[in-house]
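Page header: ASSEMBLY MODEL / two components / 562 residues total.
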Amino acid sequence: MAALTPHAGSAHVIGITGSPGVGKSTSTNALVVGLRARGKRVGVLAIDPSSPFSGGALLGDRIRMSEHALDPEVYIRSMASRGHLGGVSWATPQAIRILDAAGCDIIIVETVGVGQSEVEVAGLADTSIVLLAPGMGDGIQAAKAGILEIGDIFVVNKADREGADATVRDLRHMISLGDRTEPGLWRPPVLKTVAATGDGVEDVLEAIGKHYAWMAEKGVLEERRVRRAADEIEAIAVQALRARMGDLREGSDLEGLAHDVVAGRLDPYAAADRVVGSLTA
Amino acid sequence: MAALTPHAGSAHVIGITGSPGVGKSTSTNALVVGLRARGKRVGVLAIDPSSPFSGGALLGDRIRMSEHALDPEVYIRSMASRGHLGGVSWATPQAIRILDAAGCDIIIVETVGVGQSEVEVAGLADTSIVLLAPGMGDGIQAAKAGILEIGDIFVVNKADREGADATVRDLRHMISLGDRTEPGLWRPPVLKTVAATGDGVEDVLEAIGKHYAWMAEKGVLEERRVRRAADEIEAIAVQALRARMGDLREGSDLEGLAHDVVAGRLDPYAAADRVVGSLTA
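Prediction written out in full:
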């Protein structure tokens, strides 16, 4: 990381999130096609929060690979987040930095919208795209899931299906109710695509470019990246402190305190104070 | 916690986990009825890993309350785990200790089997019950989910449905393939219930009693509780260290380091070392 860091910082990191079935892989693929047509070097990280045993990541890799397998300017990698200490927030920034230093112009981080991982990924990206499909994500669902706040660009995919216009209208309405319509703020566009045919993908690429330009102009890009770096430093520091606690456990200091708690001689907060004390002594 | 700890340590903590639809609430309810018939004071903690916005916890509470609402010897509480820093592992041990110190003989911790929370809950319980339903949980699914390792008692609920015997047979077979059949080890029984009618619930209560006696005899009870206390102390210590890092962030130490990382002057590991250094100085 020390060797890579000076070479990183020029890639535009794009997060794509959405529920299963909205067409994330197809959309990512369509964006890669469009970016390659513009001569961009592209990295794709697909974060798979499901079990490492499911084989989903591997299968996903193989399907994705087929179209871009022979293109040396496209790197695609699935990462399982489950079971890793720290999950998405710990491993992904490092993978992003490697692709960045390797000269990717655009890095797409794709994740299934399950629970909090999409919010985590939004924290990692310069530009967050929230993908929905007609009938699946009405505005209220989106508001509940907290995605109205994290999306920089909303895309209603499978827009040839019934209900697409209603979903777009719902989303625009919900966004207009928020506080993101003030002058100078980025107002997230709501776009329609049919990723399978490529329809509307150019509009998304254009919105991505506009969002980047807006961020650069307003100083938001720097701000987001500093916040991202701070999150990453904190995650690494927590890992390091946890490792030290593991050493304590090995050394049976923690074991002894745990015995005292079970015996009722010490409460867990007092015990934790001693652990913190011995770590910071 | 300091005031409570000396009074805690006598309750038998039972974890109940299973996928949605296997009948966890009904089973918990049936166990409470059986335990009350034996004169036990019972506490129930239902961990709800879903969104705090869903209202599921509130509704669940109300449904559960109806039968035991007037019984002063039964305490029932739903807890949302999502969105809380540290989740199940941080808040639940404290809730358990309060119920324990308040004189509950048995504390049932019920959780939906989603992702890792069931494994976390297994770490909190003296006795872990894994609930399955016919056709839902064949042995291979159970093995994949890692529940074969965590269950002390397996219960196939809705045993009046087709396929119950096959599920029982599958489970017994999978367990027989594991390393839990050695002499002296606890061999998890696989029982059948129809919780809605109470059929088989006495067998489960008997197995719970036997498991407790086995743990007490073999020293496993003490061992599990020490491990649990160690986990709890560690979780509290991590919280405390995170809070200190938050202070650092406020004081803009972390901010400055993050700027250096974004500018490529410092890699995140070196930055994290400095954070750890300043915390432990």
